[in-house]
């Protein structure tokens, strides 16, 4: 018997294979591309040479321009991510990721070479579209390639690596700050470095496996089997192949358009959960704190150099927090994790707002240090609890034929929230200061309560039971029901058992 478990299910630990880890880490250069391109604007705003070059210290509309540079990025990201589903379903998961990498590469070159504000804003739009495709495409690929028993941990690598990209951008920006006195173009090289991760992604993606689920959707059974044999033991690969083929026989008969996803009640519920999860997680205000980190530290009395240094250390601390998240992402119910993360962020923001309100303009260094400490503790709840969990949860909500579009909707929710919060942030900080944090405190508090009491848990639930949560049994018509030769085989997806036929016509009660 190949399985290590007495119930016949494949052992979780057998799936930790070097091949799986290497392929996930290699594709994570796409995650790195997103993290770097997303965060580089934070240190760019902290570069005196950038501010002076584009006259953001003297223009009457400087605050609005900063808002457009940030909000426009996410507006383009919102639009771009909606094409991920169509790209990934028609041409493959790797092609979608390649398109995102190419756009991010072009944007990095354009941003570094910008000679006026309009040109910079245009390439920020291009960067937003490309990075959002990577943000959705990479975890989509990971969800479908990695062994299901360890999906939570392996997909969480996406969040850890794009956090690493945030940290790299912060340190590069900090390093080039010291070239201010030597060159007025010191702000350009950090933006040019945005090109490096997507170049690596485009260089290696040919040798990485395609999603076996997508291959089976295209009828490429031998290619799918070959990939599964590299990522699973032989017996487990066959079980997985049989299970996916069974699902594909059903999925090919189903409508996967965006319209149908919102027209059918059970699919609509999944879509709203995905969008709601990602929007609520980002109502914590993470990108406002990240992208306007130097502004926040400036309000606490720190000079330009210290602002960039604190932002870099904060992003680096996030890497450690992301790896801490690996310890419990598969141990606690998804809604409980999301609630814990949002609640922790709320407490930190309450203390931070109170500190800034009372001591922001004072010389009380103890209070200022306490404010910085709150920002760092906040980072733990975001990176260690919320960041990766939102992608894992959204990937589990949808059946195979809807996963690309479903995950895209979730990421669109992230971008929609950030368009709203980031566009108004400069004006809000300038006019209402610390009171802007109250928006995130109230929204995150409400979100934590709603998620705890309303959101269904998908961790460790057999696929047929996930389908039952959304009333999807009626999607399986009678012709798909098994008439003969049924045997019980291990169900790989969540370590449970399900009935799978030895023939191609099977009784399938789940829509992965």
TrEMBL record:
Highest taxon of source: Eukaryota
Keyword Transport recorded: yes
Main subcellular location: membrane
Any GO molecular function: carbohydrate:proton symporter activity
Subcellular location: Membrane
Pfam family, one: Sugar_tr
Record's keyword terms, sorted: Membrane, Transmembrane, Transmembrane helix, Transport
Transmembrane spans: 18-36, 71-88, 95-115, 121-141, 153-179, 271-289, 309-329, 341-360, 372-394, 406-430, 436-455
Boundaries of every Major facilitator superfamily (MFS) profile domain copy: 23-459
Membrane topology value: Multi-pass membrane protein
One GO CC term, this protein: membrane
NCBIfam families per UniProt: SP
PANTHER family the UniProt entry points to: MONOSACCHARIDE TRANSPORTER (HXT8), PUTATIVE (AFU_ORTHOLOGUE AFUA_2G08120)-RELATED, PLASTIDIC GLUCOSE TRANSPORTER 4
Record-stated family: Belongs to the major facilitator superfamily. Sugar transporter (TC 2.A.1.1) family.
Protein name: Major facilitator superfamily (MFS) profile domain-containing protein
Organism of derivation: Cladophialophora immunda
């Amino acid at each position: 018997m190949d399985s290590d478990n007495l119930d016949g299910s494949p052992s979780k630990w057998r799936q930790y294979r070097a091949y799986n880890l290497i392929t996930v880490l290699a594709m994570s250069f796409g995650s790195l591309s997103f993290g770097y391109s997303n965060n580089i604007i934070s240190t760019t705003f902290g570069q005196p040479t950038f501010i002076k070059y584009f006259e953001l210290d003297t223009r009457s509309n400087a605050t609005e321009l900063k808002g457009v540079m940030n909000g426009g990025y996410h507006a383009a990201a919102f639009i771009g991510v909606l094409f991920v589903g169509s790209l990934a379903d028609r041409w493959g998961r790797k092609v979608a990721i390649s398109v995102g990498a190419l756009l991010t590469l072009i944007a990095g070159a354009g941003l570094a070479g910008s000679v006026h504000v309009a040109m910079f804003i245009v390439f920020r739009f291009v960067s937003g579209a490309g990075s959002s495709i990577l943000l959705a495409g990479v975890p989509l690929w990971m969800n479908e390639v990695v062994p299901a028993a360890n999906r939570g941990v392996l997909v969480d690598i996406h969040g850890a690596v794009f956090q690493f990209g945030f940290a790299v951008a912060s340190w590069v920006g900090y390093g080039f700050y010291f070239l201010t006195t030597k060159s007025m173009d010191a702000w350009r090289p950090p933006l040019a470095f945005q090109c490096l991760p997507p170049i690596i992604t485009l260089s290696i993606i040919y040798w990485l496996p395609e999603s076996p689920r997508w291959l089976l959707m295209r009828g490429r059974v031998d290619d799918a089997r070959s990939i599964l044999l590299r990522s699973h033991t032989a017996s487990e690969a066959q079980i997985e192949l049989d299970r996916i083929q069974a699902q594909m026989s059903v999925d090919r008969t189903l409508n996967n358009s965006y319209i149908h996803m919102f027209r059918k009640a059970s699919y609509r519920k999944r879509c709203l959960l995905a969008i709601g999860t990602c929007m609520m997680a980002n109502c914590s205000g993470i990108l406002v704190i990240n992208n306007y980190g130097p502004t926040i530290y400036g309000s606490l009395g720190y000079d330009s150099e210290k602002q960039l240094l604190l932002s870099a250390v904060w992003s680096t601390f996030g890497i450690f927090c992301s790896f801490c998240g690996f310890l419990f992402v598969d141990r606690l119910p998804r809604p409980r994790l999301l609630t814990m993360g949002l609640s922790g962020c709320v407490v930190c923001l309450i203390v931070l707002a109170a500190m800034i309100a009372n001591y922001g303009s004072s010389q009380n260094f103890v209070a200022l240090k306490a404010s910085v400490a709150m920002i760092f503790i906040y980072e733990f709840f975001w990176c260690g609890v919320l960041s990766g969990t939102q992608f894992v949860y959204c990937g589990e909500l949808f059946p195979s034929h809807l996963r690309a579009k479903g995950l895209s909707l979730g990421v669109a929710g992230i971008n929609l929230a950030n368009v709203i919060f980031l566009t108004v942030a400069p004006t809000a900080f300038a006019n209402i200061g610390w009171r802007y944090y109250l928006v995130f405190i109230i929204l995150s508090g409400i979100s934590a309560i709603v998620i705890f009491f309303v959101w269904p848990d998908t961790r460790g639930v057999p696929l047929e039971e996930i389908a039952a949560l959304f009333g999807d049994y009626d999607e399986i018509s009678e012709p798909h029901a098994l008439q003969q030769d049924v045997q019980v085989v291990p169900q790989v997806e969540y370590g449970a058992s399900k009935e799978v036929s030895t023939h191609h016509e099977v009784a399938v009660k789940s829509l992965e």
